[in-house]
Design goal:
The structure is a homodimer of 873-residue chains.
Chain A: E1 5-7, H1 16-31, E2 39-42, H2 44-52, H3 59-76, E3 89-95, E4 105-109, H4 115-123, H5 126-143, H6 149-163, H7 173-191, H8 199-213, H9 217-225, E5 234-240, E6 251-256, E7 268-273, H10 277-282, E8 288-289, H11 292-296, H12 298-315, E9 319-326, E10 329-337, H13 342-354, H14 360-366, H15 369-372, E11 379-380, H16 382-387, E12 390-393, E13 395-398, E14 401-407, H17 410-418, E15 424-428, H18 436-440, E16 444-447, H19 455-463, E17 466-469, E18 475-477, E19 482-485, E20 488-491, E21 495-499, E22 504-506, E23 512-513, H20 519-531, E24 535-539, H21 543-551, E25 557-561, H22 564-567, H23 569-580, H24 584-608, E26 614-617, H25 631-641, H26 645-655, H27 667-672, H28 674-693, E27 700-704, H29 710-731, E28 738-743, H30 746-750, H31 752-755, E29 761-764, H32 766-774, H33 778-790, H34 807-821, E30 826-829, H35 837-846, E31 850-853, H36 858-871
Parallel strand pairs in A: 14-15, 15-16, 16-17, 24-25, 24-31, 25-26, 26-27, 27-28, 28-29, 29-30, 30-31
Antiparallel strand pairs in A: 1-2, 2-5, 3-4, 3-5, 6-7, 6-9, 7-8, 9-10, 11-23, 12-22, 13-17, 14-21, 18-19, 19-20, 21-22
Chain lengths: 873, 873
């Protein structure tokens, strides 16, 4: 028979999957002989069984719970419901991964109308007894029965008003009795029955409530944001109550074994005498620093210090400890690895290695790669945020903090920059490729529409610019240049601040702090480099981005998008001429204008990336993206191009597509207009020849996008090779180059064995591959994916975290087929997923050679790549 | 060593792959002892080797050709280039599958300045000799050297003018000598060298030219349109020349062993004395009926009759025979299975079974399923088409013929129909779902934009309505209600005619003939039913379509799209109210109005489909398709709905999608608006309960579209099952129903094992599956797929013929995974491919249970399904 219930003394810290983090650590501490209030844990398997059985606790589990309860009662020497010697318990959730505050807790369980009197007599403190009972009624009613907490609070407030007092503690035992009467009457009114008096029923219902709370909305959202699977369930801990509010020799507190903000090796914590955990949270009294305990209660302090040190060295990590002192006796209520800032995480990891507590590899596993993000972007000073109230909240699309004056069009932003404005926030309904210049000069980008992978979000992350997207509360009037939110109106030039790490928008100027990379960081990440086998490249389109990435440790460019090279002011005109050309000759003439400019771009990038491989993706977006959409802009362009407006409009209408994502783009453009691919080949090869003349050894990797078929790839490759070989022969110099393809269309993955006969490398474009495998448009999914999260259909955003089941199976198929044909084929990933730790682990498992991500995610990828090696041994 | 060259006497009819159709049949006739001019065949493998070697004929092949030439010279007793006894040959292409007129031919090869004199002497006919030589110069220059034929024709015309004569035969031998001189001078001017005098060089260059012609543009297009692979190459036949123009005892002709129009068992053919094949084609003299030969040359006639009978019984099929009589001696130049009309094909097949020549299974293999199409739609009388000149040409999107008056909007068409107009052609830039009513009342649909799978094409095929799409030559002004083409203007009400089988558009009224299904057809197709194992269902949305399909032999509905049920006038208003609703209650109220109307639709369909399964697909298109796009229509709707225009515009803008194909549609709508799926469930279940009360046994199959994930499917299935089970229980009756899904998203195929845990059937939606697997929008691909065909990247339209490599591999994966989980799972296909013979064969191989296609393709599918069984034994 499956064992669903474990006494604390039966478990240990290794059983987190089964007992949850809290339960496993309570068991471990019990095993260490620490003073832990006794109890038992109902396992996570009982929780999943609860859901499987249709939300009931099966009889065999009930029996095991009752047996564990009896065993605990025996240890404690008290009995649940025994008026003479009552046993009171807490019922707490505890999942494998900590989800603080997300699930439910019931305290003081076991009280009823008779037990309360026994407790009053036993403690000699009737006020305490009735207060505990009314707290229990309130908590049980709220958590288990779904009666709104506020209704109880109102009754309590009324009583205080009636009695002319301000805080709860001023109410007498009789007052509390009266409050209790009212609470029970409210319960009866709401539920049509008396408050349950049977402590076992109270217990079972509370356990069910904790199970249910696994699936409440905030828990689901928390799991999605923190990559926690939805099917692992929570354990439930039933534990003897201890009281920190039984007088001045009682108290409660929390402590960290090291400073969680800085990592400094010094116990840090606070406590409050004659109080319960709730009171600390309520903030009515100010807690004292933990050092003070030494003065007031040196024995307990010494005992606590000893335990804290024992726990840290036992767990090999900084601990976050909760404790209670009941009438001078210390009880440990919880220990866990403490949450910490990114800086502290690095310092603690490095210190623990220096102290000989951790090996380098163990240290590597202690830092969450996603945390490093915070180290790589400006932030707001925490002190500044104290008083700042957000005016709105959107999606945390690109991390960092920005403060600046708002502008509503890319042109206005660019003009303001030319006029010397240096703190600019671009505010748009949504951005488009035309906005690129305005985005470049901005410190932050705020959009009303679009998700985490909208144009604004993707481009901002690529540039390392702070971005908040999908901020639907904003009512933006781009025409008249203002936005309103919550009744306030912000004109062009108003100051606002964005926190791209939280999605919060502030209506004022907030100072930012520049990122600091300490020596610990460099040392720590060098350990990761020793371990990892995946190379880390970057997605960079400019020499600036490339230089940033190299600074952060990039070992090459995995994706250099060339479309931005067409958008810059000095070439967009020529490219539009090419689009509007009627003949091949006109097209070639227009392209000839662009070629030397692109060549210079490539030369600059090759110089920065000296010695590292550079993968250049040929033109990808559909041509209509290069033409204006608004009437006014169309008229302006027509005038500039000296053609009738109607002709330009006809061309725009001709290029219009129903589903541009599935339209005339990528290598399909090269099939229709071979001259574009030829021009780009010339620019790349000439640049490489020029730079190599100066002593470098650039080996450009030309990447053909959106390939779905071998013959299609061959056609474009042939254009490249014919052009390149002729140029190289004419130059008299030697130049190696490679031609490969993106694998971003399902059919390319399915026919990778054929494509690999010609392609020298594959780069998985998992953004598009995800779109097509799911049949899901990134640009449109934001509108309905929330329904999918709310209804528990999707647990995570497939554009943020690679879907291993569907998209992943295509990647694996392509890896297998590709290597069958060409064992030495180079395999990488250049989608957004290349900077996501979970996706990086998948890439490692799938056997890729490298991941490529935005410059600001390179250190994250280095760490995640090292962790993948260790985790998958 | 590979044998690349076969003497006719070395081959046989079974060697078509290697010798091509013509070569294999010449060999077969040689083997039968028939009078075939002697010669040899260079194989198709030599052709593919020619391409592989970089367009040269390798030395070993040249040697084999020379050896075969010597052997042939020995048999004939003449030598190539021998003035005294010259050997002249024809060089003809001949692929495995006949591609009439697509590739090149050279006649009279072997003539040069000296041989021509020998020929003149030998025949005693200098005019004949010089005429043959100048024909050869012209043909060789054109076919082999690429000099425009018209330049030679101009020289010949000049000579006739100079001599004051009208036809070639009036020119004398000396005139021909002079023409020849001018021809050779032209050759020298164009090529910078003399006309080649070495007959062996003439021969090798001509063989190369035939190889090259395999890849000319018209051959590529022909192959694509006829599903012929592009890599099989052509053979080349080198054959002794025989002359039908050597006097009144010579002649040439063609004959069919049965009537190719009606199938009647009677030799039918025509001949011309003193003429060559070219002269018959030129049409200057009228050929005589073959019977006449009996009078003028009874011996030859008797010999020919005997041979014709021998060939038909030898080949077990109606033969198309070419012959030449040279000075009273009969020569057989070609025999092949004759092309025939659909009616003739059926009659011949049935007759041959009755005559005991064929088994039923052999007969089944003799009819091309695609040909049956012609039997199922109205056609133009061939006599009428003789004088009619098309004004434009588009894509043959939906077969049949239609004649009618043009209307430019769906509303105008509907109004005209109400006013009693019964012959309507709807002319649109492109159609949208809003046009459905206007399309229903039209005899034909003509669009300027869109491909073979555009909205217009798909809907028209579904309705069996003639449609020509993508007719870009048309300049349509929908606003002012006219179109122009080739300088002509057609106003509303003008008569035009469409041929949906050829894509031709005529500028006048042409009478049509209704389809006739003869007794032979019924008998023939019943044989197919005995053999096939695939069930054939239909895609039908209305009782009318369903009835048509049943008449054509459908065994159920594989796809009943419900969106059309929302578009009809009495419900679109309620559905728009639902879209514009602000609350769940408003939405439910609006849906409640639609429910009884949909129920009636289902009842009517269930009644027609008595006893057959009906698969109902729940709402699929995105909601914005149900709202108007044009300013005017928006204002009208706002007024009708009594809401501000701005509110309606805001909603439309809110629903706008970048890539609607990958957007908020299919089951995603049911996730956001469960009430829609619930309403549709109610309508289906209630209809089934009602119809079953009358004694039927309807088992509705509810199909959830666009599923990509098990949890997603489960969510919607749960809505359906909860609603349905409650209704069935309340009714007190018994009702079985199934819930299954479309497999149309790659991820669904890749996770089919999971989805099959809940889905009771899969229906492959290969339209969308192809779009997503290729990353290719059906609506947009038309603009650039022509480049793909022209550059030989794609050989066929993946939306017309299922891509076995990519899409097919996903289908096979889903079949395997689905059956692993649920061995009894029902598997079908409901994309456009379900009516395409090649795709049906794939479905058979993949192990599907049924195919579903438009009503008018049901007989085609029945035949194709039977052929699949026989072919794959």
């Amino acid at each position: 028979m499956t064992k669903y219930v474990y006494l604390f003394k039966e478990g240990n810290a290794g059983m987190k999957d089964l007992l949850g983090g809290k339960g496993a650590n309570l068991a471990e501490m019990t095993g260490l002989g620490l003073p832990v209030p006794r109890g038992f844990t109902v396992t996570t398997e009982a929780c999943t069984r609860y859901y499987k059985d249709g939300r009931i606790i099966a009889d065999d589990i009930v029996a095991q719970i009752e047996k564990a309860l009896e065993a605990t009662e025996e240890m404690v020497g008290k009995k649940l419901g025994d008026q003479a010697n009552p046993f009171l318990v807490s019922v707490r959730s505890g999942a494998k991964v900590s989800m603080p505050g997300m699930m439910d807790t019931v305290l003081n369980l076991g009280l009823n109308d008779t037990v309360v009197e026994g407790l009053a007599k036993l403690t000699g403190n009737p006020r305490f007894a009735y207060d505990s009972y009314r707290r229990f009624v309130q908590m049980f009613s709220d958590v288990v029965m779904g009666i709104e907490k506020s209704k109880f609070e109102r009754l309590l407030d009324n009583m205080k008003e009636e009695k002319g007092v301000h805080i709860d503690t001023e109410l007498t035992a009789d007052d509390m009795k009266e409050v209790l009467r009212k609470f029970k009457a409210l319960y009866k009114k709401e539920k049509g029955e008396d408050f349950p008096q049977d402590p076992k029923k109270q217990l079972m219902e509370s356990i069910k409530a904790v199970f249910r709370s696994w699936d409440n909305e905030r828990a689901i959202i928390y799991r999605r944001l923190n990559d926690i699977p939805g099917d692992i369930g929570t354990a439930v801990n039933i534990q003897e109550m201890v009281y920190g509010n039984m007088g001045e020799d009682s108290g409660t507190g929390v402590a960290f074994t090291r400073n969680p903000s800085t990592g400094e090796k010094k116990l840090m914590g606070e406590f409050l005498m004659n109080a319960q955990g709730e009171d600390v949270v309520a903030g009515i009294r100010t807690p004292q620093e933990i050092d003070k305990l030494k003065e007031t209660n040196p024995a307990v302090y010494a005992q606590f210090m000893e335990i804290a040190e024992k726990l840290e060295s036992h767990y090999h990590d900084m601990q976050d400890i909760e404790f209670t002192i009941e009438k001078g006796k210390l009880f440990m209520l919880q220990t866990r690895n403490g949450k910490r800032t990114a800086n502290a995480a690095l310092k603690i990891a490095v210190d623990l290695v220096r102290e000989g507590v951790l090996t380098k590899e163990e240290a590597i596993m202690k830092v969450d790669p996603r945390q490093l993000d915070a180290l790589l972007h400006p932030t707001f000073a925490p002190s500044m945020l104290k008083d700042a109230r957000p005016i709105a909240s959107g999606l945390p699309a690109s991390p960092g903090a920005a403060t600046g004056q708002v502008y509503f069009t890319a042109d206005d932003a660019a003009n303001a920059f030319e006029d010397g404005v240096r703190n600019i926030i671009l505010v748009r309904l949504e951005t488009s490729p035309e906005d690129i210049e305005g985005m470049h000069v901005s410190q932050g980008i705020l959009t009303a529409r679009g998700g985490m992978t909208s144009h604004a979000a993707v481009v901002a992350r690529g540039m390392g610019t702070c971005c908040v997207s999908g901020c639907g509360e904003l009512k933006i009037n781009e025409e008249e240049k203002f936005f309103t939110v919550g009744g306030h109106r912000f004109e062009e030039g108003s100051w606002i601040s964005l926190d791209g790490s939280t999605g919060k928008v502030y209506g004022s100027k907030l100072p930012t702090i520049d990122p600091e990379v300490t020596g610990d960081f460099a040392e720590f990440i060098s350990w990761a480099d020793e371990i990892r086998t995946l190379k880390v490249r970057t997605n960079a389109d400019t020499p600036q981005d490339s230089a940033t990435a190299v600074k952060f440790g990039a070992e090459g460019i995995g994706l250099c998008r060339t479309e931005h090279m067409f958008f810059e002011a000095d070439r967009i005109r020529a490219f539009r001429k090419m689009i509007l050309a009627e003949t091949l000759e006109q097209r070639e003439a227009a392209l000839a204008e662009i070629e030397p400019l692109q060549r210079k771009d490539f030369e600059a990038i090759f110089k920065v990336m000296k010695g590292f491989p550079v993968t250049i993706r040929f033109l990808d977006p559909p041509l209509h993206e290069f033409l204006p959409k608004e009437k006014e802009d169309i008229e302006e362009l027509a005038a500039e191009m000296k053609i009738p407006v109607s002709q330009l409009e006809a061309k725009i209408s001709d290029l219009h597509e129903q589903n541009p994502m599935l339209g005339h783009r990528g290598c399909r453009l090269a099939v229709t207009y071979p001259e574009i691919a030829i021009m780009q080949t010339k620019a790349v090869i000439k640049a490489a020849l020029n730079v190599n003349k100066e002593g470098d050894t650039v080996v450009p990797e030309i990447m053909i996008p959106l390939v779905g078929d071998l013959v299609e790839f061959k056609y474009v490759k042939n254009l490249v090779v014919t052009t390149a070989d002729e140029m190289i022969a004419a130059s008299g110099d030697d130049l190696k180059y490679m031609v490969g393809t993106m694998i971003e269309i399902p059919r390319a993955a399915l026919t990778a064995d054929e494509i690999a006969t010609e392609a020298e490398f594959f780069s998985f474009g998992t953004n598009d591959l995800t779109q097509m495998t799911y049949g899901l448009s990134r640009d449109d999914a934001g509108k309905f994916l929330d329904d999918y999260y709310a209804k528990k259909i999707y647990e995570s955003d497939p554009f943020a975290r690679l879907d291993r089941k569907g998209v992943g199976s295509l990647v694996k198929t392509a890896v297998r087929l590709g290597r069958e044909t060409r064992p030495e084929i180079k395999l990488g990933i250049c989608g957004e997923h290349g900077g996501d730790p979970s996706s990086i682990e998948f890439c490692y498992q799938a056997g890729l050679n490298y991941v490529s991500c935005s410059p600001y995610r390179v250190p994250i990828a280095r760490l995640a790549a090292a962790q993948s090696v260790i985790k998958n041994r």
